[in-house]
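Open question from group meeting: does this chain pack into something compact, or does most of it stay loose? Before anyone orders reagents, we agreed to write out a predicted structure and look at it together. Recording both the input and the output here so the notebook holds the full record.
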Amino acid sequence: MPSVTHDDAPLLADLMPWSVAPPRLGRGWPAAPDPAALKARWDALLKAVGPDREALFQPTRSRTVHTAVGQLPGRSGGTEKLARASGPCPEPVRVLHSPFDEQWLIPDQRLIDAARPELWRVTDERQIFVVEATAGRSGRTRGERAGSGEAGADDPAGPLLLATSLLPVLRPGRIRPLYRRPGGAEPNLAPALSEHLAARLGRKAPAVDVLAWAMAAVRTGPGGLTVPLTGDADVWTAGVEVGHRLLWLMRRDGERPRLPGGRRPYVRAPLPSRPLTVRYDPDEEALFLDEGRISPVPTTAWEFEVAGVRVLERWCAARTDGADPGTLDAIRPAVWPQAWTSELLELITVLTLMAELRPRRLALRDGVAVDPITPTELHRAGVLPAPRSAHRPASVLDAHEEGPEGQLALL
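C-alpha cells returned:
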C-alpha cells in the first residue's frame, strides 16, 4: 500500500486557522494545585504595603503593582491598581497548567503578563481547546534513545495534540479553540471543510468529529503538524472513534475513567503529610512518595511523555518541590490534601488508558493512505486557503467588560 507523505496531508494550521499564543503568566504564584493556597497568597500580598508589596508581586516589564488593566472577560476581579487594591481574592478557576495537570489560577489580569482575553471570551462548557504539544520535542522517544527501534517522528510515545475544556495556560504550544464563539458557535475550521468531508464520506462530519479525527491522525511534518484526511468512510469511522476516546480521556468530563479492579491503582502505604521525594520501582510497579506507596502503576503510565517530559514526574514535582522562603510561592498546603491523592490515582488511570490507545493510533498510518484527501483537492474545492478573517478572532461582544480603574472597556 502506498504511503502518504507530508506533502499529501494538509497542515493543521490550514484546517483550524485561528490560533492564539498561550497565556504568559510572568510569575508562578498566581497558579497552584490548591485553591486555598492561592487565597492565602492574595491575602499576604494585600497585607504588604509599599515596596514590600511590589517585591512580593514580582514585577516584570509587562506588569507592576502600578499597571492599569481591565477585567478579564467574564470575570469580576477589581480593576484598580494593585498598589492600592483591597478586598477578597477573585475566586480561583480551574486551568490546564501543564500536560494532564489541572491546577487553579487567580483570574485577575493585573497578575498575568499576557492573559489572552480572546481565549477567555470563548471559554465555556461547550469549548474544546486544542494545544500543540510538539515544542521542545527531540524527535526521538525515550524508547528510541534506549535502542528499542527507529519509530520516527510519526510514531511519538506521547500525543502531539492535547485537548481540554479548561483554559490552557501551559507553554509553549499554540492554542486552537474548536469554536470561535461561545455556545459552540462558528467552528474554527476552514469554511466548507465539514461539507466537503461529508460529500466524500457519505455521512455528516461535524466539527467535533473533525477534531476527533485530527487528534488520532495528526503527524509532524516539515512545515508543522499535518492531518492526513481520508475519503474512506470505514477508516474515518475508526479514526474518529479513537479520537473521541482521546478527547474523553484528556478532558475527563462526564463518567470518570476506570481500570478493571485488578489493575486499579490504590494507596498501599499511607502518603506522608508532606512528601519530599518521588521514585518509581518498575519491578514492583509502585510509585513511592517518601514512604507512601501507590500501586499498581504500570510502566507505560510512569514513562508516558509529552514533549519529552514524563507527565507523572512533572505532576508530582509541582506538588513536592520547594520554593524560596519569603515568597508567595512558598505559601502552600501544610499537609498533602486528600484531593491530590484522588487526582493522582485518576491521572495514573488516564495515562495507562492513553498508552493503550497507541497501537490504534499507529494503525491509522496505513488507513489514511486509503482514498486520501489531499491539499490539492481541498484547494480545487475552494476549502483552502481559508479567508484572512478565519485567522483572526471573532468579534465577541456579548458581555460588558470593565476597563482599567473602572472605566468602560473599549473593544
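Observations to bring back to the group:
Residues 136-155 have pLDDT under 50 and may be disordered.
The first helix runs from residue 12 to 15.
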